[in-house]
Amino acid sequence: MNIWLWLLAAVAVVLVLWQRARLKRRYRSLEAEDGSPESEVCHKACVALLRESLASGDETTMRRALDKVTKDTLPFIPLGREYPETDLERECIALWHEAATLVHGELPAQSATSRETEDENV
Length: 122
What we know:
Elements: H1 2-28, H2 38-56, H3 59-72, H4 87-104, H5 112-121
């Protein structure tokens, strides 16, 4: 029975390593031909996708775009800093917020002052 536990652990480690390698390959493939960083490529894709979905006016298209951007693009925007650094990041976040507001209704503001207010209330 002990050998089965070792075998199971080995399979789990292999699966985790394979998943990490797959994700690294995926994001490396996003690097632009002109050598711009992966994050810039993701932000450009985010802006294009959200603009297209907002232009369509179709709620289903906007939901799909929001899901894709939330999963694939927003992880590239560091949330630890107070404001986005680049115009591209700002535009991506603004378009995401606009689409999310149209699809889900009014969203609460996530500014630094609202976080401070929440901290004070606790």
